[in-house]
Amino acid sequence: MSERTQYTPATKKPADGVDARDEAGAFSVGETSPCAALRVATRSLVMATLVLAMSTLSLGASSPAEAAVDKIIANPDSIAHGRSLAGWLRAYWTGVLDTGAEEDGNVLFMPIPEGDYTGEGDFTPDNPGVFAGTADVTIETGTPFVLPLTAWIGESTDPVVGRCDPIFDDPSLPDALFGSEDINAIVTLDGLPIVVDNQAFYVPRTDLGCITTGYPRGEFTAAVFFQAIGFVAHPLPPGEHTLTLDGKLIVRDGSIGPDPFGVRFLNTWNITVEP
Predict the structure, then answer these.
(1) 12 burial class (0-12, 13-18, 19+ CB within 10 angstroms)?
(2) How far apart are CA 177 and CA 64, in angstroms?
(3) What is the β-pairing status of strands 129-140 and 116-117?
(4) SS3 for 250?
(5) Cα-flanking dihedrals φ and ψ of residue 78, to 5°?
(6) Is 56 helix (H, G, I), strand (E, B) or coil?
(7) pLDDT at residue 135 greater than cutoff 90
(8) Which of 113, 199, 221, 234 has the largest count of CB atoms under 10 Å?
(9) Helix (H) or strand (E) holding 80
(10) Which range has highest mean pLDDT (64-73, 95-104, 264-273)?
């Protein structure tokens, strides 16, 4: 499925100040209980979104094009465009799950392709179900953006409107899984393969608090948390750019449901940067 987004950045700048919770995230752990396998698979397909990966960690580039790519992704330990990586991923998921925001200041929350099941795979760890999606995005020169690489979203048990009990039936995934053979991504930017130190760009469990969200069962109020690998990107140069992803999320030990599962995402972003 292809989606086209025309984005014009706002004229205001992102706020310089971010509170300590936004910057550092909140990592409290709630109680957990098993979820149904189908619900786990559904959430993983929708929200365990595997998107763009790039790296600034290489000591040198073998070509001018690779050198340019190295400069696109903000260092994960830096403050970029007003926030840390943890702060930007928190803002991204708050926008996606709660407020509906598509940007913060002039920083775009890059849309995620709506992937279609290709018919490949049976959603087991050794034969993951495969989804493929394409997003066509047009932005103006000078537009930075933020994207999650992979994300796991958890919510409180049996939430109801007006109530928010932080008792989770969705447990956290082990931190060590992010960046492992089972949760990773292979990405190209304009045909160049980019190898990412996923763990360096990982933000551990962060509680968004009590929010009103339409995901995944209609509008309700719930306590929600995320774990994610992601990045902040500096503006791309004017012209046409292509990002591709081959990513996967596999859980083998049944820690998030009665059965292990596996999903794989093949995503493409066709990005036009207008002068």
Answers:
(1) exposed
(2) 34
(3) antiparallel
(4) strand
(5) -100, 170
(6) coil
(7) yes
(8) 113
(9) none
(10) 264-273
Q: What single letter denotes the amino acid at residue 220?
A: F
Alpha helices, H only, the chain: 20-24, 37-47, 64-70, 85-94
5-22 pLDDT per residue, tens: 444 333 333 333 333 333
Q: How far apart are CA 236 and CA 131, in angstroms?
A: 27
Beta-carbon contacts of residue 100 (< 8 Å; ≥ 6 apart)? none
String of DSSP letters for 181-244: SSEEEEEEETTEEE---GGGGEEEEEEEEEEEE-TTTSSEEEEEEEEEEEEEEPPPPSEEEEEE
pLDDT the model gives residue 72: 85
Which residues on adjacent β-strands are paired with residue 152? 227
Residues 15, 105: Cα–Cα separation, whole Å: 7
Q: At residue 107, what is the residue type? A: V
Extract the tokens encoding 188: 């190209």
**Angle (CA) 10 13 19, round 5°:** 125
Tokens 């995944």 belong to: 216
Q: Cα 14–114–169 angle (5° rounding)?
A: 80
Tokens 């795979």 — which residue?
Answer: 121
Per-residue pLDDT at 49: 42
Residue 164's pLDDT is 67
List the domain boundaries for the chain: 2-6+27-274
Task: Check residues 136 and 73 and name the one with the higher pLDDT.
Answer: 136
| Dihedral, 77, 83, 89, 91 alpha carbons, nearest 10 | 170
Positive or negative torsion for Cα 135, 228, 22, 33: positive
Specify the pLDDT at position 256.
67
Q: Report the C-alpha gap between 132 and 231 in whole angstroms.
A: 21
- Which residues contact residue 75 at a Cβ distance below 8 angstroms, ignoring those fewer than 6 apart? 56
φ, ψ at 114 (rounded to 5°): -85, 95
Residue 70 exposure: Cα atoms within 13 Å on the Cβ side: 12
